[in-house]
Write a structure and sequence with these properties.
The chain is an alpha+beta fold. The chain has 18 helices and 10 strands. Strand 7 and strand 8 form a beta hairpin. The longest helix has 25 residues, at about 175-200. The structure holds zinc ion.
């Protein structure tokens, strides 16, 4: 099959010749083999496609593409038996067609089974020399470039990009955005999973970290990260738990699935934030597996301390004022332009005013310290360009006695917390570092004024 034909087959949603043969055999009454052994086939769509439902997790496909079904079992299915997950991982990683086998691939049968099903796709590298290279190598390189550079997949269809690729190799048939973001991406995910499996096999003393968050479109996503004793981090699993209640029992079950897959003896500790449900899920796990340490995320703990500080009457008032000043300069283009010019004249580095974002833990310090850093510029604007400060309340704040002094005071208190959060977020920090930072934070809290500012 030529590269062109292969591409057409993939992009027109049909599968390769051998897989079509399989389909025909199945229709003619032969026992189902290959991917359809794992999916219940529903209504025919009349064009060689069927509805399909995963036999393990019951995920429904209204128009089941064989490549999507394989990718589901290799990368996404939460209930597929481990030996079949590895089987489909092998197929994706090695770019094979579906194998009509009742036995999952293992060390002994892998060679005989896979040889005759290998896809052979060549493309001429240089027309003058008739040298050929495997088109899947180019596919892989391009996919990796898109993923690692964070290039949106739709760029692959941009005529200028197509032109650039065609100049490099006129015979290479450029994949569509759909093929790139589904088929080729699935293959890369399978390769990463395979590498992680191999690393886990040769590693012990693994720490599991878990956390959940809500995406902009309202989904509840949970991630499970593995940390090795050599401080490497691997994203092991991402779960969409939107349709579940996140009780301690449910979370403990999910953690246990990960533990069972890895082997509980290899796991040293489990770390998470301290939400009531997560903390008791951690407790459930640690009372079942005595070898697993129950560890609370210290960065999250530091953030809770900083939240307590900014609820202090003095801090709350100062942050509110700092925020108003920042917001004003973000909105008023005239004031912002003068501020920018002042920053340039004073030769101040580290940029302009910073906004405080509650969910970004170090921004409270950045916001307050940016006011301190730009004190001279803000004072000059207050005294010489008061006409651009169109909101009287901002002028009042800038004129108020002690505003800059108090902001500086608060900035000093928040500084060790910001440092502590940044320090424990890097991979070479240890529990001893966490302890030292707690002492530093405690000493700076001593410096907070008492409630005289009410
Ligand atoms: Zn499934």
């Amino acid at each position: 099959m030529t590269e062109q034909e292969r591409r057409q087959l993939v992009s027109s949603d049909t599968e390769s010749e051998k897989e079509r043969e399989n389909e025909i055999h199945t229709k003619s009454g032969r026992p189902q083999s290959g991917i359809w052994k794992h999916f219940d086939r529903g209504e025919s769509k009349g064009d060689g496609h069927w509805e399909g439902t995963c036999q393990y997790c019951k995920k429904f496909y209204s128009r089941a593409k064989l490549s999507s079904l394989r990718a589901h079992l290799a990368n996404n299915c939460k209930d597929v038996p481990e030996e079949w997950r590895r089987h489909f991982n092998y197929i994706l990683v090695n770019n094979l067609n579906d194998l009509p086998t009742d036995e999952p691939l293992n060390e002994s049968n892998i060679f005989t089974l896979t040889q005759k099903w290998k896809k052979e796709v060549k493309v001429t590298a240089d027309q003058s020399e008739l040298a050929t290279i495997d088109a899947s190598v180019i596919d892989e390189t391009i996919t990796l470039a898109f993923i690692m550079c964070g290039i949106p997949f739709r760029v692959i269809n941009n005529p200028f990009f197509v032109n650039a690729l065609k100049t490099l190799n006129p015979n290479y048939n450029i994949p569509s955005c759909k093929v790139l973001s589904e088929h080729l991406l699935d293959n890369e995910v399978a390769k990463v999973n395979k590498n992680i499996d191999e690393i886990i096999r040769s590693t012990s003393n693994i720490t599991i970290g878990l956390d959940g968050w809500t995406t902009p479109d309202g989904k509840s996503i949970w991630c499970f990260v593995l940390l090795t004793s050599t401080r490497q981090e691997y994203l092991y699993k991402l779960g969409d738990f939107s349709n579940q209640s996140h009780t301690a029992e449910f979370l403990a079950n999910q953690i246990e699935i990960v533990i069972d897959r890895i082997n509980s003896k290899k796991i040293l500790a489990i770390v998470s934030d301290n939400g009531a449900n997560v903390a008791s899920a951690r407790h459930l796990i640690c009372s079942k597996y005595k070898n697993i340490l129950n560890v609370r995320c210290v960065a999250h703990c530091y953030n809770l301390i900083s939240k307590d500080i900014i609820q202090h009457t003095f801090a709350e008032r100062m942050i509110q004022r700092a925020n108003r000043v920042v917001q004003f300069f973000k909105k008023s283009h005239k004031a912002a332009a003068i501020l920018k010019e002042k920053i340039r004249q004073h030769g101040i580095s580290d940029g302009g005013l910073k906004t405080y974002v509650e969910t970004r833990w170090t921004t409270v310090h950045e916001c307050v310290s940016s006011i301190v850093r730009l004190k001279s510029c803000l004072e000059e604007i207050r005294d010489n360009h008061s006409e651009v400060v169109t909101t009287p309340a901002i002028l009042t704040i800038l004129h108020s006695r002690g505003f800059f002094h108090d902001t500086q005071h608060l900035s000093k208190v928040l500084f060790p917390i910001k440092n502590a959060i940044l320090a424990v977020e890097v991979t070479n920090s240890t529990l001893a570092d966490a302890y030292i930072y707690l002492i530093k934070i405690a000493s700076s809290i001593q410096n907070l004024p008492t409630d005289e500012y009410k």
